[in-house]
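Sample pair:
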Amino acid sequence: MRAIILSGAGRYDDPWHPYPETSARLAELVRDAGFEVEVRADVDDALATLDDDVTLVVVNAGDPDGPIPDGGDDGADDLVDPAALDAALERGIGILAMHAAASSLRDYGAFDRALGARWEPDESWHPPFGDALVHLVGHHPVREGIDDFTVEDERYTDLHQYDVIEPIAEHVEDGIRHPLVWGREFGRSRLVYDALGHDTRSYDSAEHRALISQALAWLSHVPAPSAADLGLGAGAVDGRAG
């Protein structure tokens, strides 16, 4: 199995997230899950040349329309070619989208459709960085055997949901539950979004690492069965995790 980690740089960098450090921690987990791993900081080029043998894409990158660090590259010359990602999602691929990925790859319609919810400026926000109590919910295989835990992290709040998601973990803010981790199965592809992972302290949590490892195991089972494989009508599998 081969995996590409898209690590925030250029127009996908920002002043808040240490992408090289968190991508390195993710690479350890992805290798431990049995994947051959390549970390790519040239995000658009990596997506334009996505090979057919790639079975997992990890998105650990920021908002291409947001601020970049002083002296950073604005990526003005980067070319967006969504065809390879479209084809990968059609044939069946796993996507692990971490933290700021909720605001990333805005020029890729296929990723937008796969994600199911977005960070939207002037709508989404987060409380101050600190201890985050993570509530595990539902019966998704990604959460099997993991109980509620606390991690030092940011808790993304009021993400704009525009499609069906299956919550795996939530947090509570002002008495309201907000999704932190969710799964989606669409066509022959699978996605897990994990809003945790602001910096390396998030990856110091044994429970969070276990959650990511189980997400990687679930995502490795692609192509997922199609509706035809299951003897169901067209579209019966779209929008639900299994």
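Residues 2-230 form a domain with the Rossmann fold fold (CATH 3.40.50.880).
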